[in-house]
Design a protein that fits this description.
heterodimer, A: Globin-like, Transcription Regulator spoIIAA, 5-stranded mixed sheet, B: alpha+beta, Heat Shock Protein 90, 4 helices, 37% helix
């Protein structure tokens, strides 16, 4: 970029910032619910100063050069924050693309008398801004990936709740795949609850487990054995027809474990093991 | 046998197992396989993929929809470059495991599918191929 042009743009910084901010605020896509205008103003000013300084360096067109390092930092910061705040890719890229528009206008105004130079300067400005736009998108996606990764680990860490369904009876609905780490969490939670509530029966419901292979079965058997050591009996419920057939073919021996098709029948079994009788009360007018 | 569709699915980490199973379910549904047969196929695949992760640290799987005398089926190939199996005959027996598992993975997987083929060379790796036909028992 021409030195004079760069200097001119630098002199016009205040005006450029004003127009740019005006465009951003006017833009229907501006999410003032996610970010305040003052915050945006500060961010934009910081970015613009860095950019205009970089224009003034000899290797202005090489966006990989040292002069652009602070710009990359600011841009990455902006994109990642926006990705986390839930801005859409369009909203994020509009930020840099709306500046491009303002700069074009300024260049046109200044160099109207010299079309050849105007063309060249526009070209080089475009090249720089496009490359910066790509940086924005790249970091935006990286930010989103981080969010996804965090969510994945959060989901896998969701501990299974141990529910006290009756005095002395615990229920543990297991959802998702039972891997070694999860089993550890489930087992710990269950054993602790058995002690805390001095329960005698625990119902493990596997309706939400999509595939029961030998590893999952092994984990279940281990959990049951551990509970037994503490004096509690386990009932595994939620065994669907296709799972039952698969377990038989796999050759997994579950004969030593109480199993039931539904949680309801498991609860019934638990009641009879504890000699609890639940019966319908004789019809009374209780007012509800 | 005609191959109707073919795709590769690399297995590198635990989380891939879930994605892999879901993909198999999609393919099996496309052939019109019943829910029981789908579950059997998925469970067999799950066993083999876990073996691959545990003993070979991962590998590549091939997912194919095949057709023989106009009956569709799903063929899965598991290729790893792990330590291989010393005695395949022994590994196919119920209850045998060099790890601390139940030892039902390989023989169980064989019982869950219609066709089962295993080739293993110590030091080079293991390749397992399984087929489950749409209406195979």
């Amino acid at each position: 970029m021409n030195k004079d042009t760069a200097a001119y743009l630098k002199g016009k910084k205040k005006q450029i910032l004003e127009t740019w901010m005006g465009n951003q605020v006017k833009d229907a896509a501006l999410r003032d619910d996610l970010m305040s205008v003052a915050e945006l103003q500060q961010q934009s000013e910081e970015f613009l100063s860095a950019l205009l300084n970089a224009f003034n360096t000899p290797e202005a067109e090489d966006t990989e050069s040292a002069g652009y390092e602070p710009i990359h930092d600011i841009l990455s910061d902006i994109s990642i924050t926006r990705a986390r705040q839930g801005f859409s890719p369009r909203e994020t890229s509009t930020y840099i693309l709306s500046l491009k528009q303002v700069l074009s206008q300024e260049l046109e105004e200044q160099l109207r008398g010299n079309p050849a130079l105007l063309y060249q300067e526009l070209l080089s400005m475009n090249r720089i801004m496009d490359s910066l736009g790509m940086v924005t998108m790249e970091t935006y996606i990286k930010g989103r990936e981080e969010v996804i990764l965090r969510q994945t680990s959060e989901i896998s860490e969701i501990s299974t709740p141990v529910i006290r369904v009756w005095e002395g009876i615990l229920a543990l609905p297991i959802i998702g795949t039972l891997d070694s780490a999860r089993t550890q969490v489930v087992m710990e939670a269950l054993l602790q609850e058995i002690v805390a509530t001095s329960s005698r029966i625990a119902i493990l419901d596997i309706s939400g487990v999509p595939t029961v292979d030998s590893l999952v079965a092994q984990h279940l058997i281990k959990t049951v054995s551990a509970a037994r050591l503490m004096g509690a009996e386990c009932i595994i419920s939620g065994i669907r027809a296709e799972i039952a057939q698969t377990i038989v073919h796999l050759g997994i021996d579950l004969t030593n474990i109480y199993t039931k098709a539904t949680l309801a029948s498991a609860l019934k079994m638990a009641f009879s093991m504890l000699n609890i009788q639940v019966s319908r009360a004789p019809k009374q007018n209780l007012g509800f | 046998m005609i191959v109707l569709s073919k795709e590769k699915f690399p297995i590198e980490k635990e989380q891939d197992v879930i994605l892999f199973r879901n993909r198999i379910k999609e393919l099996a549904t496309r052939t019109g396989m019943s829910l029981v047969n789908q579950t059997k196929l998925m469970t067999a695949a799950s066993e083999l993929v876990r073996n691959m992760l545990r003993y070979a640290g991962g590998g590549v799987t091939l997912l194919e929809i095949v057709s023989r005398s106009s009956i569709p089926g799903v063929r899965l190939t598991f290729i790893d470059e792990g330590p291989g199996i010393k005695d395949v005959h022994q590994a196919m027996k119920d209850g045998f495991s060099t790890g601390k598992s139940l030892g039902l993975g390989l023989p169980g997987a064989k019982r869950l599918v219609n066709e089962f083929d295993i080739k293993s060379e110590p030091g080079k790796g293991t390749t397992v191929t399984i087929i489950r036909w749409k209406n195979g028992l």
